[in-house]
Amino acid sequence: MPHKIAQIRLVSSHPEVYEPCDDSFALVDALLADRKNLLGHRPHVCLEIGSGSGYVITSLALLLGEGECDSYFVATDINPHALKVTTETLNAHGVHAELINTNIASGLEARLAGLVDVMVVNPPYVPTPEEEVGCEGITSAWAGGENGRTVIDKILPVADKLLSDKGWLYMVTLTANDPSGLCIEMKKKGYESRIVLQRSTEEESLHIIKFWRDPEALLEANEAKMSNKGGSGNGIGSLLSQLSHMSFWRNDK
Ligand SMILES: C[S@@+](CC[C@H](N)C(=O)[O-])C[C@H]1O[C@@H](n2cnc3c(N)ncnc32)[C@H](O)[C@@H]1O
């Protein structure tokens, strides 16, 4: 039996809102392919940044609803028309999400820090002149600036703040965005990653990357940070020696 995802005929539209396209379908297909893991994950809070038509957040809500996960859904978009269209799409499928008109997740950090178990993002990733980034209306759906990375590079640190210890991030990227470079960047923040779906269309080569926090990667990242700060040794030894110096110094006071 096919699993429930949003039905295209029930997805609402507006001339200024991005319609579900190859990238949206690839992201939902990646979620479907990871369905068993997602159901086992039992996420409490799920967040989509840039919901557009609502096709992805609605599909995620339907998919997790099948497993009777008691998840809370939040979606943001910088384009106010997108929130109206997302509301209509969610309602047409009988599911609910809290919708917020904001830049990435601005204003949500205090409330959601460390709480998001699943984050999904199909960002504006097309390489464009920098002035097009953040333009009003439909242009904001694709304009990604230099190498298509301007918005992506702002989203990743926000994701790092909002994701819970068991949090997963699924993100759409293009070859031009340098997906393996993004994985290396996230490794420095303590994340492992895997390209869970790769799809070439006539126009682009899409990669869906899944990121998750990994204790070993975090330890390596912390070690690298400590040795960059010019610590006396390297690795955990350096960390321990710095800690003992700190407590010695405190006792001295
Ligand atoms: C490629 S579309 C994806 C839409 C939908 N998620 C999908 O997959 O069909 C990117 C979406 O991100 C929104 N967006 C662009 N920049 C944003 C920002 N800084 N903060 C929040 N949303 C943004 C756009 O308005 C657009 O709806």
UniProtKB/TrEMBL annotation:
The keyword Transferase applies. Its main location: nucleus. The keyword 4Fe-4S does not apply. GO terms for cellular component: eRF1 methyltransferase complex; nucleus. CDD domains: AdoMet_MTases. Belongs to the eukaryotic/archaeal PrmC-related family. This is OLC1v1016459C1. It comes from Oldenlandia corymbosa var. corymbosa.
